[in-house]
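Record pair follows.
FIRST:
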Amino acid sequence: MDYRNIYQIARESSGFTQEKAAELLNISVESLRAYEGDRRVPPDKTVIRMIELYNTQYLAYQHLKTNAEVGKAYLPDIELKDLPTAMLRLQKEVTDFIKCKDELIDITCDGIIDNQEMPRFKEILKELDDITAAIYSLKFAKPLNDRREIR
């Protein structure tokens, strides 16, 4: 199977040829090929035009997660799922957090997190990270009647 990067997958999923996409993005076909071949990273303004043309907000997330140091360091990994599965995952993650909500209040209400509380505080923050990832997964989920390739 041939490797295809995030920009190529987004373009192909929206049904554009490289030539038509380059024309509508107001860039050369050679530039688009360089972006899709991982020889160059497209500037943010070009990525914004791609997102709008290809109608895929997920490309914004992928672009930041793979090309920006802050995205690599702080954006959670997300899994793209179908809409019902994404909704169930979000519900599960929220339920998991609710189970430890009172404990978070106890740990943080005095404004001090001591060494004994810190390990559990970090575990609870991980629950919040899981909710964030589930929210993004739901945001970018595709309805079952719109089965485009998304990676």
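SECOND:
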Amino acid sequence: MKVAVLDIKGKETGRKVDLSDAVFKIEPNEHAIYLDVKQYLAHQRQGTHQAKERGAIAGSTRKIKKQKGTGTARAGSIKSPIFRGGGRIFGPRSKDYSQKLNKNVKRLARRSALSIKAQENSLMVIEDFNFEAPKTKDFIQVLKSLGLEDKKSLIVLGDSNNNVYLSSRNLTRTEVVTNSELSTYKILNAQNVVLLEGSLEGIESNLSKS
């Protein structure tokens, strides 16, 4: 599968790259995508919600009134949930929401997501670029040239590039990641995926493993 390489001005460089059919041109596996996205979203949950039940409340354990003769219900502790300041009944507890997923399934899901973007013509390859200093204005100009200014886009770098990353950080509709940070959710959540030439080798190497 051959794709034209663009420069940061959105013009063709006259070069083409051969994208691996095993990564960018497979029959998408929807169930693998579902499992990988489900795991990703589950891992975003902190699970630190915790309420104090009666065993966690600080307070006296003495019986606050006699058992009988008061005309009211029995009460054995000031920490009872029916009293103000008492413990909570069946409150939320801390929980680990993380899920396990086979590596091969994750690779299949990412190949499927990239193949979907390729089928939709929402995938482009541009030559590697850098900025002399972090500057959002320069990054916006690159997006304008590529026709992505008003679109949700994912920019995939070969290696971490601090200037490019910092230049994009204030833009809510654009995310910059390295090829090792690529996930099925991020690929599908973006309207357009932009791959820098330097990221292709790493992507194909990581996702071609069986």
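COMMENT: The helical segments are 21-24, 30-43, 103-119, 136-146, 162-168, 184-189, 197-207.
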